[in-house]
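[Solved] Which block belongs to which protein?

Original post:
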Amino acid sequence: MTKTNIGPDSPFKKEVFSAETFERARAKSFFMKHMDSGTGVIRKYRDFDSPEKKGDKITLYHNAEFDYRTYTTEGEDHEINSEGLTTFKDSMTLEQKIFSHRDNGSLTRKRPAFNLTREAMERLSRKLAELIDAASFAALQDILSTVKFGGSATSLATLTATDFLTPDLISDAKTFAIGQQTLLPGDQHSLGMVDFGGDEGYILVVSHDVFNDLKQDSDFHNRAVIAVKQMKGKNPIFDGGQLILHDGVLVMPHAKLFFASDGGAGANVKYARNLLLGKDSLAWAWGARPELISDMLNLKQERIDGYEMTYAVKKPVFNALDQGTMGVFTARTNKTANAIGGVLTI
């Protein structure tokens, strides 16, 4: 089999590198992995087959559950007493972002010890993944309708420095997510579960500080030991040290999660706004496939490479209720040595 080489002046070079950079970003982005894996965390409303433009609005719909208590019996007017379909709406608007970087020119760099084109693609793919995750986290943490707090706290003002994430809090949050359903359509609803590996449950995204606190918890240690004994040496709770599965909740750390140091009555408690994600917790739409843009500047001495991205991202909110997201706010130690964190705004 012969190998086809694409030269530097080939018209296919841009398409190849554009596609390659995008695929690399897919592998690096936390949310794009879920978008393509079928877990159900993200609902994709538009793909590349239906190009849209910046400013176009996409409407999201949600049909409320029927009230099973509404029924008719013999002799009653079924048509008059039939229950109507209640539909709630939300919307999101396509945005356009362009990000780029430039090489400082052949007169300055002399002979680089790396492939400039490959380095540019690697940096762009990493930047694309970071921007997608930053935009997704910013959308998810926008005014949460339901929040559980660590310990006995009922608000950020009552959170104490020892109200860490614990196994019991994980179970409580899961139970609350399942059991907040009422019989009336449009009222509180349970968070739908996502699929991971054939099992159903929730995903709890936490800061790295909170993840470390959980691993230091004595109750968690005891449960881990029992799990090892029951599984004859294999521990189903850990997966490479980066994932913890407890009571059907997959706990995952991420650096983009919001954390701060102004909680508690004295505004001095370090805390994190952890997120419990269920089905359809995030809505995403592509206006078009991200496109690579390259140009030469300064009499062809400098090269600029960039990406144009048209997208929309939204945390679906129907009838003033988050569709698939719940906050789990807990205290944290300061292992990351950062006093104040936050979500990158793009």
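(Second protein starts here: sequence line, then its structure tokens.)
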Amino acid sequence: MVGRSRYLAFLLSLFLILSSMSLTAFATVQTTSVSIYGVMQEETRWCWAACAETCGKVSYPNSPYTQEDVVIEIKGGAYNTGGSADETRDGTNFVAEYRDIWKRSNSALSFSSLTTKIAQDRPVIALLVNSSYNHAVVVYMTQFIDNSSGEHYYIDYFDPEDGATYHIAYEDFCDIEGYSKSVYCS
């Protein structure tokens, strides 16, 4: 009987020691997203017009306008040419038939601002400028993770050039991809 009591006491002590040593991992994950139907660019320089169509149809899903209509409206013909931030904004407003007011910023939106816009069911067109190219993509999701290794900020974006979606750290999106201007719904 004494042996059994000591054995149970030993097991209980061992259990308490092991349970106090176990690491508990907690993480907070906050994801904010908006549904989009991303369209691929029809010409090599029409990323801006494809993004305008994608985002304009979030504002007005029944819009009959396509990226080709955007290029014709903004450029005066279906020319294979890139578009500025202002032209991207104007194209988005055109597709949305001015039901919402899309604006542009000459800077990247903060992670917090991106999250706020997306929480309002509006994606953001990010204009990427680096030494290799100028390009437009649609940011449709943000994700904040707070865990034992710190805070992490991610975005998901649709690229009209290849029709793919990408998950990337916000800091890398700004630094490596060259996120520098924005078109967003106010």
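Accepted answer:
You had them paired correctly. Confirming on the second one: The chain has a mean pLDDT of 89.
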